[in-house]
Amino acid sequence: MRILVVGAGSTGGYFGACLARHGRDVTFLVRERRAAALRDHGLVVHADAGDFKIQPQLLQAGEIRGPYDLILLTVKSFGLEQAIRDITPAVGEQTLILPVLNGMRHISTLGEVFGKEKVLGGLCKIHSTLNKDGEILQMSALHQLSYGEQDGHDSARVRQLDAVLSDCGFDNRLSMTIQNDMWEKWLLLSTLGAVTCLSRGNTQQVVRSAGGEALLQAIYSEVLAVITACGYQPRPAVIAATLQMLSNPETPLTSSMYRDLDQGFSVEADQIIGDLVDRANAHALPVPLLNAVYVNLQVYQQTRQAG
Ligand SMILES: NC(=O)C1=CN([C@@H]2O[C@H](COP(=O)(O)OP(=O)(O)OC[C@H]3O[C@@H](n4cnc5c(N)ncnc54)[C@H](OP(=O)(O)O)[C@@H]3O)[C@@H](O)[C@H]2O)C=CC1
Ligand SMILES: CC(C)(CO)C(=O)C(=O)O
User: Fold this and answer.
1) What DSSP state is assigned to residue 203?
2) pTM above 0.95, yes or no
3) What is the topology classification, in CATH, of domain 2-176?
4) 125 lines ligand 2 (CB under 6 A)
5) Can you list the alpha helix ranges (DSSP code H) found in the chain?
6) Rounded distance between C-alpha atoms, residue 290 and residue 194, angstroms
7) CA-CA distance, 164 to 167, in Å (whole number)?
8) Cα–Cα nearest to 99, from 80, 81, 77, 123
9) What's the pLDDT band for 278 if we cut at 50, 70, 90?
10) In this predicted model, what pLDDT tens digit does every residue of 91-113 receive, in sequence order?
11) Could you tell me the distance, in angstroms and rounded to a whole number, from the CA of residue 256 to the centre of ligand 1?
12) Residue 62: helix, strand or coil by DSSP?
């Protein structure tokens, strides 16, 4: 199976390197600066289970010759439009596109461009980032990649994909409920992103602040109400466990959006929070806290762009 990993950042670099290290046929689609760095230094991964390095096969936009069997899409939401243009020559009749982006909006965008049947549901759970040398840093043992047919049916192609992604050193999961899994992940991630970005701190600091736990719970309730209004019902056990995890005063959690904000990088405000606010508005659902977070992040983005 020929695999094109689009982006060699925190998630693409991690999962792509694991796949290549285990003998899968992986090529990374990267941009010029990343290509130069990876050519010179290789792709270095500081994994929880130990460090390793691969010399990746690289391509840049315009160099793609023919379709790939799998496109693992690991760009940020604000890079999606460009990535769609760049991968178009790699998408053939049988190509499967597996996106790991947070949120939901990209699924319909990709479906509209390439055809819904080519786009799998997907998500990853990992705490990873790039260090100052552009190396991948896995910050906890978590490294889960889940995927499945959007409508949950079993198929030969997802079984084949599952076989290829198995035994590559990360936790791969074929899911027959991937849409619901993605909504459940959004519940976790958007609450975590909202509360950490708003407070400029981790969940432990939030929960140990006066009114912090109540704020977290109130944001969580707003997100849950939006998701439910959209027709998805997170499982009761997941609702309870997620809130318990987020409110645990012993565990300082951050989201990738907060880590980006903390470093002055662009954040996926529209995809992770704005889309929830839009959906709430469509259902005439008041979400004052999410709205406050969204405004806050938009102002951050404007300040960044002006600076
Ligand atoms: N990091 C994490 O812990 C987690 C992230 N996620 C989600 O995963 C998605 C990806 O995030 P993450 O990996 O952290 O992001 P990163 O910014 O670390 O990596 C994205 C990479 O995509 C590259 N890229 C963007 N556009 C293109 C393009 N057209 N062609 C080639 N390369 C491109 C960027 O390259 P360049 O260097 O050239 O800009 C960058 O290296 C996001 O939606 C995020 O929310 C989900 C779970 C955890
Ligand atoms: C759920 C979590 C926190 C870990 O995968 C995440 O998706 C993120 O940080 O973007």
Assistant:
1) H
2) yes
3) Rossmann fold (3.40.50)
4) yes
5) 10-21, 32-41, 80-87, 105-114, 156-165, 178-199, 203-207, 212-229, 236-247, 256-262, 269, 275-282, 288-306
6) 7
7) 8
8) 123
9) very high
10) 999 999 999 999 999 999 999 99
11) 10
12) coil
Q: Which of ligand 1's atoms lies nearest the C-alpha of 12?
A: 13
Ligand that lies nearest to the alpha carbon of residue 256, given by its number in the listed order? 2
Residue 86 has pLDDT above 90, yes or no: yes
Q: Please, what CATH class does the domain formed by 180-306 belong to?
A: mainly alpha
Q: Quote ipTM for the complex.
A: 0.99
DSSP string, 238-303: HHHHHHHHHH-TT-----HHHHHHHTT----HIIIIIHHHHHHHHTT---HHHHHHHHHHHHHHHH
Residue nearest to atom 10 of ligand 2 (CA): 256
Task: Give the ligand with the smallest distance to the CA of 260.
Answer: 1
Cα-to-centroid distance, 242 and ligand 1 (Å) = 25
Break the chain into its structural domains and give their ranges.
2-176, 180-306
Question: In this predicted model, what pLDDT tens digit does every residue of 31-69 receive, in sequence order?
Answer: 999 999 999 999 999 999 999 999 999 999 999 999 999
